[in-house]
Design goal:
alpha/beta, six-stranded mixed β-sheet, 6 helices, 10 strands, globular
Length: 242
Amino acid sequence: MYDVMTDNVASIVNVTKVYQKNKAAPPVHALRGVAMDIPRGQYLAIMGPSGSGKSTLMNIIGCLDRPTTGQYLLDGEDVAKMEDESLSRVRGKRLGFVFQAFNLIPQLTVLENVAVPLFYQAVSSAERRERAAEVLRKVELGDRMTHRPSQLSGGQMQRVAIARALVNEPSILLADEPTGNLDSKTGDAILALFDELHAGGLTIVMVTHDPMMEKRVQRVVRLHDGNISQDVPGGKYSLAHV
């Protein structure tokens, strides 16, 4: 196992995930005893062909799904066996998500979209606006707060989605093919933003098919048939992070 720090924000301990639609259908083993640590502040890419288990692993790290067996420790707490309500609360407070499709609410302004996660945490209206505005300035959209998603470019919409993921100050930022709907120039600008966020100390886990990401991240984990087939340093790894 590849490890660059002793302070792990997350630990996957012998996790399996088995799907079975019904008793007559054969079980699908999406993950087969995966074990890995995610050091705090690391920039990690999860890669592999379709059906390798990378999306399942991402969903477990993001508390969107539970392992069939094994443990998932997030900030030292085993979240794998939590009740749904507790798991939802952990997901809202400790994790931020960025998706390929942006998933913005068209009827809301940019500021309102970013503030949505705080609404579910019962944060006051004034504080929601203040914190949303702060992260929008951080992603260079301070002048677009009153716009609707339809008034933005693809790159701007992804920046809004990133701001929404950051507003709860997550332990881990999870990104699933975040540049998949963007042209190469706009995608490069979004990846540069991820670089800046990581330089500020944020832990980032990205699922990607893009081989160029290997040069940008600290660590690359490749999955094949539900197993980790390779766990190696990426191009951004340096002894400064040991």
